[in-house]
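subagent[fold] <- orchestrator: predict structure for attached chain, return tokens only, no commentary.
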Amino acid sequence: MKRRLGLLACFAIVILFAGSAWAQQQQPNASALTDAQQEAMQALAEQAQPGPAHAELMKRAGDYTTTETYSAPGVEPQQFTGTAKLKSILGGRFLEEENSGDSLGQPYSGLRLYGYNNGSKQYEAIWIYNGSTAFLVLDGSSDDNGKTVRYTGAFLGPGGGRQTLRVTITQQDADHFVVKLLGEGPKNATSTLETTYTRAKKTTAPIHRQN
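subagent[fold] -> orchestrator:
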């Protein structure tokens, strides 16, 4: 709700400025922007700039191999492998992840966007993949400067019931981080999907010495 209000406020200000610019074109003698409008523009400009939280997120950019472990009540843990490519986009404001592999016996590919909302002071993420036509929208917070971020989201299960999904992302070191999903289903049943990301080692071309 807080994010929606923030977006509405931004749109309202954009419309206000657009209307003001149009009015000034129609009335050459119209006064410049008011102090309130200038302050609002400055606040928006400052919020649009990436900060320390974004810089920490961008450190994850790179190529990774992934190992998934799925656990659920009454089911033997299963493990799968895949790959992921993370890159900084839009001037370091967002981190984009493309992933693919095999999960639960089926090939998958997905796209994830991560960011930090300067206005709401929250971490945010959007996930989509080829097994669904729905967006998963996540909001999160951290108490250790982004090393561990705890997200919460919700989605509709196969029977149409609303299910909560909790996601914890933990940065272990510069080359490893873990994404843990905790699903809460009917009758308090829980399942977990834990994915470990390992940065791919850079390979160097062999040096051929001439005799």
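orchestrator: received. Logging for downstream: The beta strands are 62-72, 75-89, 94-103, 106-117, 122-129, 136-141, 148-156, 162-173, 176-184, 190-199. The CA atoms of residues 141 and 172 lie 17 Å apart.
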